[in-house]
C-alpha cells in the first residue's frame, strides 16, 4: 500500500523575523528572534486537539534567497544548525503554490514535522494551497483573514490525518509570545501556548 503524502504530518508556518528599513538581511531584533527560535521550537508541542504532542522537525523550508531578501533562510538558520538539518530553499517566494504541490506529491513528507519560513504576504495563500479551508475551521482556530505588516510573532499550525486531510481541530494560528514585541494576538486566540 502506498504512503499518502502528508499523512500524519504537521506543518508550522512562520513569517521571517524582523527586518531593517533597508537591505536583504535581518535586523538585530530579527537576529535575536532567530536565535530564540532554537529553544522555542526544540520545546514546541502541538496546540488544539491532542495538545502537548512534541514536534520533532524532519524538514526545514525557507523561501529562496533573493537580492531583496535572505530573511526566511536567516530566520531558521540557527535552528537548522542546532538540529543538524539543511534548510531547503528550492522555491522563490512567488512559487508558494509549487511548494505546496511538491509537499503534497512526495511520500517522503508523510509522518513528518515541517517548518516553513516565508514572507507574510504569501503565508495564508500558502496555507490554502496546503489544503486549509479557512471557512471550515472552528472559531477557536483564531485563523486570521490577513497578516498585518507589523506582526512577526504569529505561527500557523496545520496538522494532517492518515488520509492527508487537514485536521480542523489542530489547525490554528497562535501568538508565539517569543519577544516583548509579540503584543498582537490573532483574532479570537484563546489557545494555550505551544
Unreliable spans are none
Overall 3D shape: globular
How much of the sequence lies in strands comes to 5-15%
Query: Gyration radius, to the nearest Å?
Result: 15 Å
User: How would you spell out the order of helices and strands?
Assistant: EHEHEHEHEE
Number of domains: 1
CA distance, first residue to last residue: 34 Å
Task: Describe this entry's structure for a reader.
The chain has 194 residues and is of the alpha/beta class. The protein has a single domain, classed as 3-Layer(aba) Sandwich (Rossmann fold). Helices cover 25% and strands 14% of the residues. The chain is built from 4 helices and 6 strands, in the order E-H-E-H-E-H-E-H-E-E. The protein has helices spanning 28-42, 71-83, 96-105, 120-129, and strands at 10-15, 59-62, 87-88, 113-118, 154-159, 172-175. The chain has a 6-stranded mixed sheet. Strand 2 (59-62), helix 2 and strand 3 (87-88) form a beta-alpha-beta unit. Helix 1 (28-42) packs parallel to helix 2 (71-83) and helix 3 (96-105) runs parallel beside helix 4 (120-129). The radius of gyration is 15 Å and the shape is globular. The relative contact order is 0.24. The mean pLDDT is 93.
